[in-house]
Amino acid sequence: MDTLKSAQRFFHQLILLYRPFENQLNLLLNEHQLHRAGWTILYYLYNNGEATNVEISHYQSVEKPTITRAVNRLEQLGYIERVPSKDKREKRMQLTELGVNIYEEIRVTIDQFEEEILKGISEKEQLEAIQIMDVIRNNILK
């Protein structure tokens, strides 16, 4: 019974945390004409190199049309570009030089924001929370 109550409290807290975090993040990203969806794509391409919409949709666990809209917006902003591919059906993309610069500029702001909201939580506790979230995500995606 206690476990159920803990689980209920855990996920309730997660839900209460997510929306204010996303709202604050979007306020910071709005200064660069971005939202969380676009930021996550920039993050992925910066850290993993070129990718397809399908690869990114799998990474984010969202539908491909959602990624396509965000990718089109990032292309309009000049942050990403298509990469020539042998397979015409496979549309790969990568960050442009502007995209790399914008990512690195925004990263400084996001790092400050994340450090601020993690005050009072040790690095050890943060790493434990990351591990816990990873296990939960893997359990969901089984």
Structure description:
The protein is mostly helical and 142 residues long. The chain has a single domain (2-140), classed as Winged helix-like DNA-binding domain superfamily/Winged helix DNA-binding domain (Arc Repressor Mutant, subunit A). 72% of the residues lie in helices and 7% in strands. A three-stranded antiparallel β-sheet has the order 1-3-2. Helix 3 (53-60) crosses helix 4. The longest helix has 29 residues, at 2-30. The relative contact order is 0.10.
Index terms:
3-stranded antiparallel sheet, globular, 142 residues, Arc Repressor Mutant, subunit A, mainly alpha
- What is the rounded distance between the termini? 25 Å
For the secondary structure, the number of strands is 3
CATH topology: Arc Repressor Mutant, subunit A
Q: Any idea what the shape is?
A: globular
The mean pLDDT is 92
By CATH reckoning, the class would read Mainly Alpha
Under the CATH scheme, the architecture is: Orthogonal Bundle
Oligomer: single chain
The number of helical segments is: 6
Low-confidence stretches: none
- What is the beta-strand fraction? 5-15%
